[in-house]
Amino acid sequence: TDIKKGENHTVTWTPENGRYVTKVTVNGEIFYEGTTLDYPTSHEFSDINTDYDIQVETKLIPNLVITKNADKDVYNVDDEITYTIQAKQIVEGAFATNVIITDKDMTKGLDFDLDTVKCSDETAKIKKDNGTFTVSLDELAYGKTVVITVKGKVTKAELESSDIKNIATIGSAQTEEGSADKNIEINYNII
Fold first, then answer.
1. pLDDT at 147 over 90
2. Chain-centre distance for alpha carbon 89
3. How far is the C-alpha of 75 from the C-alpha of 9, rounded, in Å?
């Protein structure tokens, strides 16, 4: 592009499909540096009187997958339930950072024993609050699967339905939130 001295000009950049911008430098000075999908795509130069060297660095966008299972599909009141959540990142060469896995939408009639929450990643931070939990990971790399288990119990006093749905979600600095759910059936007639 031919730009005359003193003109204003906007420079734009678009990463290749499947990538996000992590760093932009202008003449060796950092203009932007980050790890999220909320990055700038342009910069306006005013009163141009010199050449600029613009460098844009990108990384692969990770893809997080979550599954949730119970140790069986049908339970009786007062039975113990073991839920297993598995989370993994499936894009080779990509890393998800600030990963948050949350168990959500607690159905009445299911009580978790939060003292039984375990995570296969020893660096994980587990936060327990209001009958549910959140697991935080600094990073989830390609090929690594994180397994979280928790035990619960079906309680007759609060049971509103013979079907219980429980949802787990996962998200990171580079991804939208995804979810997995597990439906179980309780051998119990609601009157």
1. yes
2. 10
3. 66
